[in-house]
Design a protein that fits this description.
Elements (H helix, E strand, L loop, with lengths): L26 E4 L9 E10 L4 E9 L7 E9 L6 E7 H4 L4 E8 L5 E8 L5 E8 L11 E4 L1 H4 L1 E12 L2 E10 L6 H7 L14 E7 L6 E7 L10 E10 L2 E9 L9 E7 L5 E3 L16 E8 L3 E9 L5 E9 L1
Antiparallel strand pairs: 1-20, 2-3, 3-4, 4-5, 6-7, 7-8, 8-9, 10-11, 11-12, 12-13, 14-15, 15-16, 16-17, 18-19, 19-20
Length: 331
């Protein structure tokens, strides 16, 4: 279900709102490995490589918590942005983690491929590490560099990176978990006991920013989007992707009202002129919804081409699982 918004002026020129997409009309890119809640395919990151005339799509498979959570991540290649063939994969065992989640796949300034992976570290806190290689299928999941962790942010976890280069300066937009204001013994005990502080209710899911001149060494800039005091997104505001439509940047974020919806967030939209100060445009209700189960549409990823926008997203199936879908919208 799409919420109506203007995407073009009467003269047909683009304005600062991207064209709508209808998640119900999207095509299934990857189905989950099983049926029912907790079985997901998604958390996408996609880039178009004009040199190869190919789309490269990162995604991950998740199982219910008792079966392993985020167990497998993959990168697939496709010519039309809708059909893909896997060319790379990594398992949770190769990463040595309880669970892996969203990554950011980007092309470095020297032409190398960079995969910024988020996963649960051995101390139970979310971290982000970088794999680099000249070719995607040469990425080595065992050869990683730590680029951002909770201590760098003065927080309790950091994950789900979105990485963009603006004018030669790298920007990493991330979900981070601020340290709870009241650190009682009970709170300390439960914060990282399950390997996912975001699902404990001890803190909320905010969006922060780090910057870098080389894509390896990052400086924490602080919070850029906090959950509001009231509303459908008062527990989580997690920006996952950004598209530049001059004069503004349009961001897509995942929102939820409480910890009960931590794994069933809904899609929101926000805008910024500088990637540092964001204003939510979906203050009354989510941007788009699935008609099924918990109505979840989350982890929206956008690839901008001259003729179309390609949206990739997790979509609630009737049985409560999530599939990875794609929608191509003329641009």
């Amino acid at each position: 279900m799409a919420i109506p918004r203007l995407s073009a002026s009467p003269a047909g020129k683009h304005c600062a709102c991207p064209p709508l997409f209808d998640p119900d009309q999207g095509v299934t890119v990857r189905a989950p490995l099983g049926e029912g809640p907790g079985w997901w395919a998604g958390a996408p990151s996609c880039v178009y490589d004009p040199a190869a005339d190919l789309f490269y799509l990162y995604y991950r498979y998740r199982k219910p918590r008792e079966l392993g959570r985020g167990v497998d991540c993959r990168i697939a290649a496709g010519e039309d942005g809708l059909e893909f063939k896997d060319i790379w994969s990594a398992t949770k065992e190769q990463i040595n983690t309880q669970s892996m989640e969203k990554a950011a796949l980007v092309r470095g300034q020297e032409g190398q491929w960079c995969l910024y992976m988020s996963f649960v570290d051995t101390d139970g806190r979310w971290v982000i590490e970088l794999c680099q290689a000249d070719a995607i299928d040469a990425l080595d999941p065992a050869d990683r560099t730590r680029v951002l962790d909770a201590d760098d942010c003065g927080a309790e976890g950091v994950k789900d990176p979105c990485v963009v280069n603006i004018g030669g300066l790298w920007h990493m937009i991330v979900s981070y978990a601020p340290t709870p204001s009241s650190l009682t013994g009970e709170v300390r005990q439960i914060m990282h006991a399950t390997g996912d502080i975001y699902n404990t209710g001890t803190t909320k899911s905010h969006t922060g920013l780090a910057t870098s001149v080389d894509g390896i060494h990052w400086d924490w800039q602080g919070d850029i989007l906090s959950p509001p005091a009231e509303g459908w997104d008062r527990y989580c505001t997690r920006i996952g992707s950004v598209v530049h439509i001059p004069p503004v940047f349009v961001g897509f974020y995942d929102g939820s009202a409480s910890v009960e919806d931590n794994y069933e967030e809904k899609a929101g939209q926000c805008v910024s002129f500088d990637l540092r100060h964001w204003t939510r445009t979906t203050t009354e209700r989510p941007f788009v919804l699935s008609p099924h189960a918990q109505r979840t549409v989350r982890y929206i990823e956008v690839v901008q081409r001259e003729d179309a926008l390609f949206y990739y997203y997790e979509y609630n199936r009737p049985d409560g699982s999530h599939e990875l879908r794609a929608s191509r919208v003329p641009w």
